[in-house]
Structures are given as structure tokens and as C-alpha cells.
Amino acid sequence: QVQLVQSGAEVKKPGASVKVSCKASGYTFTSYGISWVRQAPGQGLEWMGWISAYNGNTNYAQKLQGRVTMTTDTSTSTAYMELRSLRSDDTAVYYCARGPSRAGNWFDPWGQGTLVTVSS
Amino acid sequence: QSALTQPASVSGSPGQSITISCTGTSSDVGGYNYVSWYQQHPGKAPKLMIYDVSKRPSGVSNRFSGSKSGNTASLTISGLQAEDEADYYCCSYAGSSTFRYVFGTGTKVTVL
């Protein structure tokens, strides 16, 4: 079955960087994009951006431009999201999700989430 | 890009129908038929319930339906069940020059 498995929880200090991985299985990795969405404690979902696993093209949310980098490793069907210059308000659960794709503009399925805590 | 506007909470009794609205602009909801809806239970990852405004993925109950009029999309849950109690988020493509997306503010559905 289609599955996305993310790396484990991270604790970082303000100013540091974090890199979260998302390993895909059960489908042709290069046929879909991978999107990243985060959710601060008790808050809603925030779209961060997406990367085409086919050609590596990226689109990032304006507020994160310059701090976020999304990459893929097609040899291992793994996507990565790196966020730099971490602040306390970056504390959130970070999700990867399959999509978008030529088939459409939706996200399915989602990874289990990775909690990133930014604290001094 | 501002979040799409959803009511903070909606409630209903078992068996009733409820509707959640999702209001955007002509640059997102009103401009494309690419609205999707996600259900999220506490501590769990979101799950796709509706895509392309009104289409249901396989495995999703036909009690869930979607529609759109102008800049507002809606999710209706009919025959409300206890398991439907969750948070619901809409999402719209907001591209054209940029291939981007925007989520709604989220709605807590309570089954009384």
C-alpha cells in the first residue's frame, strides 16, 4: 500500500537547522510531488511548499522563502525538508504528503508527522 | 496568501446533516475547481475526504459530499455519526503564476 514514513522527533535550539525525511513506498516515486505541511500546537494546517519528484522543481510558501529547502533522493524514494534559522514559532508537527501530481491537486496519503521543538 | 475562512465549530446530533463552509477569493477557491477537504482526528495525520470540489476517494463514505458556489466551497456530512467528530480543513490551489496552495482555518465538528 502507499505509505510515507517520516523521521523521528527533533529538539533544536533557536538559530539551528533541522532536516526531516519522508520515505515513500508502494508507488512510483517520480510520478508525484511531495508536499510539506506543518501544524503548530493547537493550530491549523499551514502549507509550506512542494517538490516535484520527477524533476526537482520546487514551490515554497512566501513566508518561508529563503529559510526552507526541499529535496528528493530518487534512488531511495525519500524526500527531505530542511528549515534553517529556527525560531520558537517553528515548533510544530511537520507532515509530508504525496501530491500534487498530473492526476490532480490534492494530498494523499500523509506521513505520520514529525514533531520539531525549538527551545533554548 | 491568507488562510481560507472556515467556521471555528459546527455541531449536530447523530443522524443529522451539517455543512462546513470555506470562503476564499477569486484567486483561489473561486478561480479553480481544485478544492479538497481533510479530516483530522486528535493526534493523527489528516486524511483526504474530498478532492476536485466534489469527488470522493475510494473508501470514503458517501455521507461526505462537496460543492462550490463562487468563492465559497462547502463540505456536507449527512447521517452524522460519532466517528465523524474531528477537525476538518479545506484546501485550495492558489496558483496561476505560482504553483501554490492554501488551507482553511479549520472547523471542529462535534457530535452531540
Q: In summary, what is this structure?
A:
The complex is a heterodimer of chains A (120) and B (112). Chain A is mostly beta strands. Chain A contains no helices and ten strands.
Mind sketching the topology for me?
The complex is a heterodimer of chains A (120) and B (112).
Chain A: E1 3-6, E2 10-12, E3 18-25, E4 32-39, E5 45-52, E6 58-60, E7 68-73, E8 78-83, E9 92-101, E10 114-118
Parallel strand pairs in A: 2-10
Antiparallel strand pairs in A: 1-3, 3-8, 4-5, 4-9, 5-6, 7-8, 9-10
Chain B: E1 9-12, E2 18-23, E3 35-40, E4 47-50, E5 64-69, E6 72-77, E7 86-93, E8 101-103, E9 107-111
Parallel strand pairs in B: 1-9
Antiparallel strand pairs in B: 2-6, 3-4, 3-7, 5-6, 7-8, 7-9
Fold and architecture overview:
The complex is a heterodimer of chains A (120) and B (112). In chain A, a hairpin with a 4-residue loop joins β7 and β8. By secondary structure, chain A is an all-beta fold. The mean pLDDT of chain A is 97. Chain A has no helices and ten strands. In chain A, the strands form two sheets. Chain A has a six-stranded mixed sheet, with no helix packed on it. In chain A, strands 1-3-8-7 form a four-stranded antiparallel sheet, with no helix packed on it. Chain A is 0% helix and 51% strand. The radius of gyration of chain A is 14 Å and the shape is globular. In chain B, strands 1, 3, 4, 7, 8 and 9 form a six-stranded mixed sheet that branches. Chain B is mostly beta strands and 112 residues long. Chain B is built from no helices and nine strands. The chains are: A mainly beta (120), B mainly beta (112). At the A-B interface, β5 and β9 of A face β3, β7 and β8 of B.
